[in-house]
Amino acid sequence: MVYDNFFVVGLFVIVLSVPTIMGALRRGDAPRIPAIMFLMGGGLVALAVSAKPDRYSLGTIPQVVDAFVNRWMAYFQA
Q: Transmembrane residues, as ranges (predicted)?
């Protein structure tokens, strides 16, 4: 369950960092902070996958994200 959190948060950070990397490259700036964000997200995803390699794959991403969202929604409703 903790690894689900790591996995989903890591994916979220990666998804947020990709447009900022592209924007920085388009402006001609060095994408330092977005690159650090991308590495941190990748580290979280790698930690989750290395801990439970059979749990996480491309086919299970929707189920893991759905379980994560449902768990947090139930937490905030209580």
A: 6-25, 32-51
Distance (Å, rounded) from C-alpha 74 to C-alpha 11?
21
Report how many domains make up the chain.
Answer: 1
Q: In this predicted structure, what is the pLDDT of residue 2?
A: 87
Residue range(s) defining the domain that contains residue 33: 2-77
pTM, 2 dp: 0.87
Nearest to 64 by CA among 56, 54, 72: 56
Angle (CA) 30 13 63, round 5°: 150
| Structure confidence at residue 20 as a pLDDT band (50, 70, 90) | very high
